[in-house]
Structures are given as C-alpha cells and as structure tokens.
C-alpha cells in the first residue's frame, strides 16, 4: 500500500498513478473486510452544498474505521457570520485529523488546504469531484476485471466537475475517455491538456458534440445532471440543448454489447437518463453508489494511517 499519510486530495491528479491503483485495490479489499485506524481520528465535514452520498458514505466509512465525524455545516459555524476562511482553516487544523470540504470555488479549497495543516479532501467543487471517480473506477474494475484499454463515454455537461475528474481519472488508469457535450459546454481546456499529457498519446482523450459517434464500441456510458448545484436557474434553458445527449435505449444500443451505465447521482429521470436505462440490466449505479463508501474508506485509511 502506498501511504498517503498527511496528504491533501484537492484534485485526482494529486495522486500518482501508482497511488490511485493502491487506493483502488485497498477499496476492493476493504469491501470484504474491516480495518480500524490505530488511533481514533476525527474527520470534519464542511459542506456548503447539499449531499446525500458523500456525507453519509464518509460518515459511515469513518465510523467503520473506528473514528468520528463532526458536521461543520457553514451555517452553524462562524463562517456564516463572515469569519475569514484562512482563520477557520488554521483553527480547524488544530482540532481535526482531516477535513472533507464541499464548496463552489476550487480556489477556496486550495486556500483552506494551504492554511490547515491536516489532509484536506475535495468532497466536490465546481471544478472536480475526485472521490466520486475513485468509486467509479472501482466499479469499472469490478465489472470488467480491468480498466486499461476500456472506453468510457461521458454524455452531458462537459464543463462540470464530473467531466473534469473523469478526464483525469480515465487517463490515469489507461482508459479512453470521450466527452460528448454541446459545443457551448466544453471542458476546462487546462484539464483537457492535463488529461492529454497523462494519456501521452497512448489512450484517447476526445471532446465531441456527436453523441452517437462517441458511444460507438464504448464500454461505459456515464452521465450526470445537466445543471449542477448552483446552476439551478439555468436548468430549464439547458434541457433542449442537452436532450440529444440523453442516455436512452437507442444510444445504449450503439455502445459495446457488454456496456454498463453509470451515473454519479442524484439523477433526473427522463432528462439525462431514462427511467428504463437507470432501472435496466446495464445499470450499475447502485453498486457505484455503494462503492463511494469503500473507496473513501480506503482513502481515509491511507491519509490517516499511523504508520
Ligand atoms: N454523487 C454525489 O456526490 O452525491 P451527493 O451529492 O448526494 O453527495
Ligand atoms: N455535477 C453535479 C454532481 C453532483 C454529485 C453537481 O455538481 O451538482
């Protein structure tokens, strides 16, 4: 096991390829057995956006490791009354062993991490959602018994956190990644360049506005909401533009015969994915959601290790 003791996870690319594989194999081992932290540790959860899976899977993972969590919803801390982030970071860093933060700006996460002398975990920002991709890759490994050489097609908002973390994660494990998105919603060019540098010409990094072409021979179809948290006011306007990217039976029929369908959840049935597909035989979304807990337990065990 590669130790990540004391490290931050602000972007998936903060891990080396070897460390990513190490977290994923530990997650698969932990799924069939428990492991305790040598000393009771405390994880803070500072979430400025709603969460079901991330909040609960981190909490249960921490309890199962023998640690504790403290819910630091900004509305019940002095953050809501304007205490500067840098002061909050320095103080919380003296109490907690690690903190998972869900916020808007990646910059705020980075600022917090530079002032708090504990591991800071990205629990979703507008730019990235690395913990989700740990579970996604774990699910791919479980379903196909390999990752390298497979193709994942993400359909929907190419400019969101999931598209960005999948670009990095797939490139890191040797998977081809195709982002099918309306041309008005391209991924952040900096992240596309980062993914291409990781892929080093050995695997595909494709951005396209042609969903039918993008799913050809693809092993994993992945989608996410068309309007992310904070973009609710744009939701209705986005629907007609994104509708051609909906994951439905006819698009699924164009993918590989053994293709699986993933969605980070929460899902809007009959927008980005049809009810038939999410409830259908190709869907692995419930295993994927369960794997959040195993993958994060592995991450926590590594970040908080006493060794
Ligand atoms: N997929 C995910 O992060 O879910 P939550 O928003 O419920 O945490
Ligand atoms: N892109 C979505 C992911 C939710 C888990 C959002 O940021 O709302």
UniProtKB/TrEMBL annotation:
GO biological process annotation, one example? L-arginine biosynthetic process via ornithine
- Aspartate/ornithine carbamoyltransferase Asp/Orn-binding domain spans which residues? 149-302
**In what residue span(s) does the Aspartate/ornithine carbamoyltransferase carbamoyl-P binding domain sit?**
7-142
Q: Which enzyme type, at the first EC level?
A: transferase
Q: Which UniProt keywords apply?
A: Amino-acid biosynthesis, Arginine biosynthesis, Cytoplasm, Transferase
Compartment annotation: Cytoplasm
Pathway participation: Amino-acid biosynthesis; L-arginine biosynthesis; L-arginine from L-ornithine and carbamoyl phosphate: step 1/3
| Enzyme Commission numbers on file | 2.1.3.3
Question: Has keyword Cytoplasm?
Answer: yes
Query: What positions does the entry give for L-ornithine binding?
Result: 161, 224, 228-229
Recorded coiled-coil stretches: none
Which reaction is the catalytic activity of this chain?
A: carbamoyl phosphate + L-ornithine = L-citrulline + phosphate + H(+)
Q: Which GO terms describe its molecular function?
A: amino acid binding; ornithine carbamoyltransferase activity
Q: Which residues bind carbamoyl phosphate?
A: 51-54, 78, 102, 129-132, 264-265, 292
What are its GO cellular component terms?
cytoplasm
Keyword flag Amino-acid biosynthesis:
yes
InterPro entries the UniProt entry points to: Asp/Orn_carbamoyltranf_P-bd (IPR006132), Asp/Orn_carbamoylTrfase (IPR006130), Asp/Orn_carbamoylTrfase_sf (IPR036901), Asp_carbamoyltransf_Asp/Orn-bd (IPR006131), Orn/put_carbamltrans (IPR002292), OTCase_ArgI (IPR024904)
UniProt main location, coarse: cytoplasm
Q: State the similarity comment.
A: Belongs to the aspartate/ornithine carbamoyltransferase superfamily. OTCase family.
Q: What is this protein called?
A: Ornithine carbamoyltransferase
Q: Which source organism?
A: Limnospira maxima CS-328
